[in-house]
Amino acid sequence: MIHILAICAAILGFGCLCAAMARHQKELLGRTLPSPVQQRFRTAGSTLLLVALVIDMTGLGTAYGTIAWFGHLTIGAMMTLATLKWKTA
Amino acid sequence: MKESFRQSMAWLHTWTGLMFGWLLFAMFVTGTAAYFQQEISRWMRPELAATADPVSATQAAMTYLRTREPDAESWFITPPSARDPVTEVFWQPKKEEGQPPTRRKRGETSATLDGHGHPVTVRETRGGYFLYRFHFDLHYMPVMWARYLVGAAAMFMLVAIVSGIITHKKIFADFFMLRFGKGQRSWLDAHNVTAVFALPFYLMITYTGLVTLATQYMPWGVMANYASTDTFFEEVFSGRADVPRSGVAAPLVPVSSLMVMASRSWGGAGIGFVKVANPGDSTATITITRAADTVIAARSESMVFAGPTGTLLDRHVPEGGALATQSVMVGLHAGRYAGWGLRWLYFLSGFGGTIMVGSGLVLWTVKRRAKLPDPAHSHFGFRLVERLNVAAIAGLPAGLAAYFLANRLLPIAMDNRAEWEINSLFFIWAGVLLWACLRPQRRAWVESLSFAAALFAAVPIVNALTVSRNMLTGLVTGDWLFVAFDMAMVTVASALAWSAHKAARAKPNATRGTRQKNKELTTA
Amino acid sequence: MAVHPNKEGVHRHRLHVLARAVAAIIGGYVVTGLAVACLARLLPMRAAEASIAATLASFAIYAGIVVTVFSTRSMLRVWIGLGGALLLLSAIVSLSILAGGRL
After folding, report:
1. Which chains touch A (3 or more CB pairs under 8 A)?
2. Where are the domains of chain C?
3. What digits encode the pLDDT tens for the residues B225-241?
4. B342 Cα to chain A: minimum distance (Å)
5. Distance between alpha carbon B45 and the CA centroid of its chain, in Å?
6. Which ipTM did the prediction report?
7. For residue B467, which phi and psi values (nearest 5 degrees)?
8. B129 CB within 8 Å of a chain A CB
């Protein structure tokens, strides 16, 4: 359902934003990525978070969807962090 | 102050957070639980299995009220819903001539009915509703004092959030930073992460919480324009003035037809509330209010019908502007409009808030302990904070589990049973506080957290031994409430047990070298 | 906050903190209340709306005042600021009430 879709978009979005950061690149890959790649990750990440908002507003209504979006962002951020910790354990 | 803006905000954040931290922790725990208050109430009244049709249940409730209190000034009926199978009724008794209104006890002017209008014969309990009321009314004290305390806590929280945002300069760079096993740094990371991940929720919940009781905390806006708050409320909220009885008897139309008509005009929305003024009289009116689970605004629309004829007399439509904003803000806080998905998001965010407050409290002691000249002999203030931390973070959850256990274990026919369930919560909570004061600090954490874990783990077991519905029967018969509740109990027990385990394995007091390094740390 | 190691310094520090707290909590509340009353009387909407709009804004105003009190360098500036706001807002509210209307 809509909640699952939006959460997936949020996880992917935060995943990109995380991957765009030098500190986490070093943790995950052992090196940093070139600046244009970082920029593309940042753009992709922000776009995906907005996609989550569009999913929510379309599927749940404008007001209700916006409120739910904040919750989906929270879950997305949490799941990304959990994945990061798992991958770098 | 001779330091930078950010440094002064760091100081402000630390102290506003600490001053009301324990109360805020309790508010977060009970507020979060309150999002499932109906489910908790149903679990605490396991005798109630059936659902009820709201329309016929309301009609049956009117029959009950006509028999029990035909001369009442007004009847109030809360029909059953998908989440609550009982009908709650209360009434305003007829005022005796020339006598001041007597304060009746709660039980004397209210009743809980089943779908056929008969009082339910279930164990006496205040259920999840108590946790909701505790969230802002606390307990064992006059409600007004509690609300002032809770309001002060919320105001301190608002300042803590603002100062926290200002002082957390690397809010984006440190967004995903969570280092384990680094003592103070780990606690700071945990506090930052839980704080930032649901920051919009905390801002919303704190501000809207204040707004919910705004006229008590800030009456000056109303007082500047009205002679008293009463005249304000009359102008804005009362529909029709209370009309005295004419003395001419007239039977009421069946309320079911009115409920169906109202529901249809609201696009199929449910009915939240039915009020009958002057029942049985020719001046009777029936006010039907829309259910809260269909619009965000807390103040729902209503329709007023003439009692004897069913003619529509008045409609209260949503207001505009500031009044609508206030209504929406209250609705956002209570979350009654939320469906299942959003309700769980509210719950998880509230749980995040609980972790945020708890980790902040622990961070305060971890940071201070590193700076103590002699860790074995700390000053009174520090020891007090340490003990109160254990009492809040381990004690309240233990009390909550005790509340559920008492519900299953106290004799069904006991006097004041509901009150004694509540007393059990505070008795166990106080016990943990006492234990924390008597034991060495590290042992206190391990033992109290283990105790709380054990109590939560006991809930599904005691439930299975005392009641016929449990997780296993639930899986077979589709009784999802009991499946979910048991799973929640096991989850909480596991989390508490894990915390106790971590506390037992925590590194001993930092050596002088590390303490020196910690001294140079500033809050991020 | 700079912590002084000697006893007298600690004592002075605590008084300082207390003064800020009193200014922020009590002074801030009074100024907020007056600001809310001013807004309620002056906002160009019907009385009930203005009262509620002002009330809704009150907590943001209060939080803003608290943050300002704790970030202002000199305590003297804090008292002058609060005192000035108090006088100005009281004057506005009083004049507005004397001028009639609404109440």
Report:
1. B
2. 8-98
3. 998 888 888 888 766 66
4. 6
5. 19
6. 0.96
7. -140, 155
8. no
